[in-house]
Write a structure and sequence with these properties.
Shape: flat
CATH architecture of the largest domain: Orthogonal Bundle
CATH topology of the largest domain: Tetracycline Repressor, domain 2
CATH class of the largest domain: Mainly Alpha
CATH superfamily of the largest domain: UbiA prenyltransferase
Largest sheet: none
Low-confidence stretches: 1-10
Strand content: under 5%
Structural class: mainly alpha
Number of domains: 2
Number of strands: 0
Helix content: over 70%
């Protein structure tokens, strides 16, 4: 690891002015991404069969949050050269010089090790193993291997972001069953249209940084077509918990309506080819995933309480 760090000493953020603020280290954790990861992990934990002590449950969520943040910090360390080029990322703590690259790496690695160890010791080692897999996949497979080599970086790399509900489930049950795998699949299939919508109107940034996102490599028309294809797979897939009988009509109707809106926006991206349409899909895609998990949790609680005949 020291050889890699030395090789990048001349890159942006190798040295930072002294006295980095706590907010700068918080920014390394990618808190907006971390919040969605934590929420999907929380839902996986709450809908899992069985009981978990509130302190153990909180510890599991804390470990998921710390692990996600650690992945973000290591990602920023690895990507500091391209972050300095892209307008969207040039003000991040490392390229802006607020945090040194070595400090960011040490911070991320320490948090990663601590999160996995705490999960194993306080919760169970199945959940810890899944958390370690998530961190390792995001750092080594997505960030270091795929991101700069293939336009399928988001497709394959999306597996890391899809694992938190599986980890939450495993924290309660000590194993993995069909429902958390469906939730994994929903996030996995949601990830490409979500990020490709962003890449459509940020394609110049990715081209300048040399990142082979799909719009840069295959063009905007092909990217729009792929967004529509993945959306057509995502919408019925999200209904799978209702189809298999795990959830009731609250989830089924709500997710059906959300899916109709998602398809409408994806069709607009494909048909109109405007940046405004891609922006709308990107913004809605975040709300969509959040509400899918809200509805799953609400339906589960309504069923447990016997409300509305769920």
């Amino acid at each position: 690891m020291s050889d890699i760090t030395a090789a990048h000493d001349a890159s942006p953020g190798a040295y930072a002015r002294p006295g980095a603020a706590p907010a700068d280290f918080l920014a390394l954790l990618k808190p907006r991404v971390m919040s969605l990861v934590c929420f999907t992990g929380l839902v996986g934990l709450l809908v899992a069969p069985g009981d978990i002590h509130p302190i153990i449950g909180f510890t599991a969520l804390l470990c998921i949050a710390i692990g996600a943040g650690a992945s973000g910090a290591i990602n920023m360390w690895c990507d500091r050269d391209i972050d300095a080029v892209m307008r969207r990322t040039r003000n991040r703590p490392i390229p802006s010089g607020r945090v040194s690259a070595s400090d960011a790496l040490g911070f991320g690695v320490s948090l990663a090790v601590a999160s996995v160890a705490l999960m194993g010791l306080a919760v169970n080692w199945v959940a810890a193993g899944l958390l370690a897999l998530t961190i390792g996949f995001y750092v080594f497979v997505y960030t270091m291997w795929l991101k700069r080599r293939t336009p399928q970086n988001i497709v394959i790399g999306g597996a890391a972001g899809a694992l938190p509900p599986v980890i939450g489930w495993a924290a309660v049950t000590g194993g993995v069953e069909l429902l958390p795998l469906i939730l994994f699949a929903v996030i996995f299939v949601w990830t490409p249209p979500h990020f490709w919508a962003l890449a459509l109107y940020r394609s110049n940034d990715y081209a300048d940084a040399g990142v082979p996102m799909l719009p840069v490599v295959a063009g905007h028309d092909e990217t729009r077509r792929q967004i529509l294809i993945y959306s057509l797979v995502l919408v019925p897939l999200a209904l799978a918990p209702w189809i298999i009988g795990f959830s009731g009509w609250i989830y089924g109707i709500g997710v059906g309506l959300l899916g109709a809106r998602f398809l409408q926006l994806a069709y607009a991206v494909w048909h109109r080819g405007e940046d405004a349409a891609a922006r709308r899909l990107f913004g809605f895609s975040i709300l969509y995933l959040f509400l899918v998990f809200v509805l799953l949790l609400a339906d589960h609680w309504a069923g447990a309480l016997g409300w509305f005949g769920v």
